[in-house]
Amino acid sequence: MRGWCRFSCFFIFFTVFGIDAAFCADQKQQVVLTSEGGLEWNSNEKTLTAEEKALVVRGDTALGADKITAYYKDNPANKDSEVYLVKAFGDVIITTPKQTVYADSAVYEIEKSVIILKGNPVKLLAGQEQMTARILELWQNEDMAVARQNVVAQKDARRLEADVVRAYFVKKGKKTEVERFEAESNVVITNDKEKVQGDEGVYLVDKETATLQGNVKISQGNNFIIGEVADINMKTGVSRLQMLSEKGKSKGQVRGVFIPDSTKEKESAVKIEKPKTPAVLKDSESVDGRETNEKILSSSDEGE
Predict the structure, then answer these.
(1) What distance in Å separates the CA atoms of residue 209 and residue 78, rounded to the nearest whole number?
(2) Cβ count within 10 A of residue 202
(3) What was the pLDDT predicted at 289?
(4) CA angle (249, 252, 256) in 5-degree steps
């Protein structure tokens, strides 16, 4: 089927190779929906659904999925139709100049420029950083991503885990990278040197430094120190730990625990063996369960 129809800034046209639809979301950015398969337009519910390699493009953001439904509304002021919501399902992939995200489903709130993704897990790639979570929110106007549930942010040997992590992006030259992470609840940062735990913290990616607060514990092997506030340099391995103070008075003391290596203890321990019974006593005769050495003594006397 070939043909087209147009209503203000809303139009649909059919081609031999696929089906495309475009809407005016605002004066500057247009929302374009394409599909290599069928496209269903429901004028009563004001939806447009694309299946089979469906793709939505808005500005420099592209969202692809197995199935995409766009929701639009009429604007009485200028008689235009505007897309305000996009829902995507199955093998979702989002590409922007700042990041690439893989998920199972996505909801794109056009007016807020917010994309909420869910997956098992959702995977975000930004520069050399990789972050996974069950739920991820992309706040495009704030250059921020919020990850929730089973969050892991990893780069080389460094690994950051928490219940909630906010990633802030910054443009460096032609590339956009993660500038810092802000983590909340059950925060754990590890590398090949140490492990740091706390209630909340901030990690600066370039400097490889972190500041953690609340029930802080820094571990190296079996040794650890605990306190309330810690400044950690993951690059040098130097950490400073202190307790929170109130009106110049410390609330407590920093405590360190150093545990010897149990393996080395075992290797250096003196082995004590039970004395062996002389062979001559093993051959001696016994009477009523008691050893008799009369033969041994008599033989020694004869030798003298």
Answers:
(1) 52
(2) 15
(3) 47
(4) 135
Q: Using an 8 Å Cβ cutoff, are 57 and 32 in contact?
A: yes
Residue 241 is predicted with a pLDDT of 82
Looking at residue 179, what is its pLDDT?
94
Inter-residue contact 49 to 40 (CB < 8 Å): yes
Q: How far apart are CA 282 and CA 243, in angstroms?
A: 68
CA distance 216 to 254: 10
For the entire predicted model, the pTM comes to 0.73
Tokens coding 300 = 């020694």
Distance CA 41, CA 48 (A): 5
For 150, half-sphere exposure in the C-beta direction (CA atoms, 13 angstrom radius) is: 10
CB 162 within 8 A of CB 186: yes
In the prediction, which pLDDT does 30 show? 86
The pLDDT assigned to 297 comes to 41
- Output the pLDDT for position 21: 57
Exposed/middle/buried for 111, CB within 10 Å: 0-12, 13-18, 19+? Answer: exposed
Closest CA to 85 of 99, 98, 68, 72: 72
pLDDT along the chain (304 residues), means of 10: 32 39 56 87 92 92 96 77 93 95 97 96 95 97 96 95 97 86 96 91 94 91 87 84 60 50 48 49 48 46 48
